[in-house]
Amino acid sequence: MVVGGTAGIGEYTARKLVERTTPSKLIVSGRNTEAGELITNDLNKVGNTNSHEFIQVDISSMKKIHSYAEQLKTKIQKLNYLVISAGYFSMNGRDESDEGIDKKMAAHYYGRFKLIQELMPLLEEAANAGEDARVMSVYSAGFEGDFYKDDLDLKKGFSLKRAADVCITYNSLMVEELAERHPKIGFIHIYPGGVNTSLGRDLPFWARWPMQIFGTLFATQADDCGDVMTYALTDDSFKTGWHLLNSKAERIAKPKYNTPENRELIYNHSVELTTIKAQ
Ligand SMILES: NC(=O)c1ccc[n+]([C@@H]2O[C@H](COP(=O)([O-])OP(=O)(O)OC[C@H]3O[C@@H](n4cnc5c(N)ncnc54)[C@H](OP(=O)(O)O)[C@@H]3O)[C@@H](O)[C@H]2O)c1
Predict the structure, then answer these.
(1) Residue whose CA is at the smallest distance from ligand 1 atom 44
(2) Alpha-carbon dihedral of residues 118, 21, 173, 264, nearest 10 degrees?
(3) Phi/psi class of residue 147: alpha, beta or left (left: φ > 0; alpha: ψ in -120 to 50)?
(4) How far is the CA of 109 from the centre of ligand 1 (A)?
(5) Mean pLDDT for all residues in the chain
(6) Which pLDDT tens digit goes with each residue over 118-135?
(7) What are the pLDDT digits (tens) for 10-51?
(8) Residue 101 beta carbon below 6 angstroms from any ligand 1 atom
(9) Which domains does the chain have, with CATH numbers?
(10) What is the rounded CA–CA span in Å between residue 240 and residue 243?
(11) Nearest to 139 by CA among 102, 96, 174
């Protein structure tokens, strides 16, 4: 399953996974139904099958993630690989959902945490059957930054830099904590490097064109990045445990933030914030 699979790194990871591993079923998810259906049509042609499928989800909404997971549980009994590559680049300030979570922070962390929790029974089912069960969060391992113990979700002091810093740190804490709690499952947080994708499509023109020039001239192409992501997801060295990887899928040093106290703090905070409150 690739969430954030309707474009960019997620799309090319889905394409490479089908080419390389011929899965019996691959689910592509994101908000854009048209793009998702075009991609799954292509994937079905490659595999000469009808089983690959698009299912819509917006991971900025905890309620929608829950309904999505419930829908999935009626379609599949177990899940081997979960890739989360949802995200976007914007220069807008805090944009809270009706659940009180900044939508960008949800795409980059809180929605990812919620999605993994909701899909854990399906991953456990695969692991208990002796099969691969792995989760890969595509974001920015290696670029962790400070977080604020009295303002963990930045309700009081939001800035784009802080949001990026804390979401990266939380992803790295999450993979370690979840690996401890689920020893038969592998958890990866990976930095894809500078990749030529549509990531900056919501930026104003003056900010978008330098990114496009950089992307065309210097960045890795999404197709090549898809190869690295597929390797990281399926290689035996990442079968269980937690792994922070760079753009070549090499291990990077443990961040100073990854302490047992911080893991517990952020885990409990994430459960609290992503639990759907009764109206
Ligand atoms: N490209 C880079 O150089 C680079 C560098 C470092 C880190 N990253 C990280 O890598 C991830 C993927 O980036 P990319 O370059 O592939 O970007 P992209 O081409 O813009 O693709 C992002 C994907 O995320 C989906 N998405 C966005 N918001 C979503 C939401 N609320 N719910 C569900 N899906 C959502 C988009 O689909 P829909 O519009 O259909 O929802 C799309 O499929 C991001 O987290 C990004 O921060 C990228």
Answers:
(1) 87
(2) 40
(3) beta
(4) 12
(5) 95
(6) 999 999 999 999 999 999
(7) 999 999 999 999 899 999 999 999 999 999 999 999 988 999
(8) no
(9) 2-278 (3.40.50.720)
(10) 9
(11) 174
Q: Are 131 and 79 in contact (CB under 8 A)?
A: no
The span from the CA of 2 to the CA of 136, in Å, is: 9
- According to DSSP, the residues that pair with 244 across neighbouring strands are 189
pLDDT given at position 199? 78
Confidence of residue 279 (pLDDT cuts 50, 70, 90): low
Q: Is 52 exposed, middle or buried (0-12, 13-18, 19+ CB in 10 A)?
A: buried
Nearest-atom index, ligand 1, CA of 222: 16
Rounded average pLDDT over 196-205 = 79
CA distance 173 to 257: 8
Report how far residue 146's alpha carbon sits from residue 209's, in angstroms, rounded to the nearest whole number. 30
Q: Which residue has the higher pLDDT, 123 or 221?
A: 123
Altogether, the residues listed in the chain come to a count of 279
Pocket probe for ligand 1: among 6, 82, 103, 244, the residue whose CB has the most ligand atoms within 8 Å is: 6
| Eight-state DSSP code of residue 24 | S
C-alpha angle 133-136-139 in degrees, rounded to nearest 5:
170
Handedness of CA 255, 2, 82, 55 (dihedral sign): positive
Average pLDDT over residues 140-163: 97
Residue 16: which of 36, 35, 43, 41 has the closest Cα? 43
Tokens 């309904």 correspond to 67
Cα 72 off chain centre by: 17
